[in-house]
Amino acid sequence: MPAPSPGPREVLASSPEAGSRAAAAGSSCRGLLWHLQDKRLRLGLFDIDPGHKLHQMTCMMQAGLWAATQVSMDHPPTGPPTEEDFSQVLTQVHEGFELGTLAGPAFARLRRSLGLADEDYQAALGPGGPYLQFLSTSKSKASFFLSHDQRFFLKTQRRREVQVLLAHLPRYVQHLQRHPHSLLARLLGVHSLRVAQGKKKYFIIMQSVFFPAGRISERYDIKGCEVSRWVDPAPEGNPIVQVLKDLNFEGKTINLGPQRSWFLRQMELDTAFLRELNMTDYSLLVAFQQLHEDEKGLGSSLIFRTVRSVRGIQSPEESGAQNRRLLPDAPNALHIVDGPEQRYFLGLVDLVTVYGLRKRLEHLCGTLCCLGRTFSPVSPACYARRLCQWAEAHTE
After folding, report:
1. Which domain does 256 fall in, by range?
2. Domain assignment of residue 87, yes or no
């Protein structure tokens, strides 16, 4: 598929005042949001209030996303997908900034295939409540946000990463159509933000793997290696719940029961896809949530869902080939797997690191310096194999 067109189409966006009216419509929810403030602090999430250094930027993101989503609501894509769906660039001009929407029709189709209504997407990402910021253990300089309802995750990206993502977007969509219950994070939008003729900043939007987060007790970012994969746990009583790493996971097991075979097979399918794209250094996110007694062993709580694609519902034979499973009747079911005692949140994220010259040099340095210990920058084939081996060794 072609890269995004170099000449973006510019339109005058719906005014920020329109977004403000949407915010006013959600004011009845503010009491509930304030009621949840203490809970957020315990999770290490912080409202980006007017005094925050990122407040102005996130307000622009909210107003811009409200207007961008309105375009897809007013002009929903029809008919079969086209190459233009993946190459379109729409730039909306606001007072003081511009917001670009890249491959808007393609992402609108993807959101629809997930059963996500544009009205809900707009309400969560628009000016109805402040975004939440959290401190990440990632070594990148990216900024990380959550929508006020914690359903959607936003992350700033480098221009090169965005180019890679868009180049592979058609194949990503095809993979999700072939494997509707894939563990890959669901990407929902790619945007650029430019303030007063300054340099463009890029960010992506995806479904949060760790949603709903209320009862999650432990979170991990797994790469299947040892070097730099330890996080000092927060002192007892510290309000921030950290995302831990591989070495912190030692001695723990993911007990999936009869769903283990599905999980291992899906890991093989998804990592094989990323290997074909020459990707490396992605992460398996894992979180634990203790099931209540009345939730354990409830076969009736499982339903067979099909994420619809443009190809429609598949035959039983194709369903088996697609490695579908019983999904819990819960929000974010695609990233939730229930074991006998625990609910697990599982998803593959950070899908845009190409094994190019930089990663090859990092691999050479790691080989010389790490004295036999496993480290992150390795070839896509080795990385995929190693992460699948980690999954097999740490599940039962």
Report:
1. 218-393
2. yes
Three-state DSSP at 72 gives helix
Q: What is the pLDDT along the chain (396 residues), one digit of tens a residue?
A: 444 443 456 777 665 455 444 444 444 444 444 434 444 444 567 889 999 999 999 999 999 999 999 999 999 999 999 999 999 999 999 999 999 999 999 999 999 999 999 999 999 999 989 999 976 666 667 889 999 999 999 999 999 999 999 999 999 999 999 999 999 999 999 999 999 889 999 999 999 999 998 889 999 999 999 878 898 887 776 767 689 999 999 999 999 999 999 999 999 999 999 999 999 999 999 999 999 888 886 543 444 443 433 334 455 546 568 999 999 989 999 999 999 999 999 999 999 888 754 554 454 455 445 445 554 568 999 999 999 999 999 999
How far, CA to CA in Å, does 58 sit from each of 24, 103, 132, 151, 244? Answer: 17, 21, 10, 16, 27
Q: How many residues does the chain have?
A: 396
- Does 241 share its domain with 170? no
Any idea what the CATH number is for the domain that residue 306 is in? 3.30.810.10
Q: Within a 10 A sphere around the Cβ of 137, how many other Cβ atoms?
A: 11
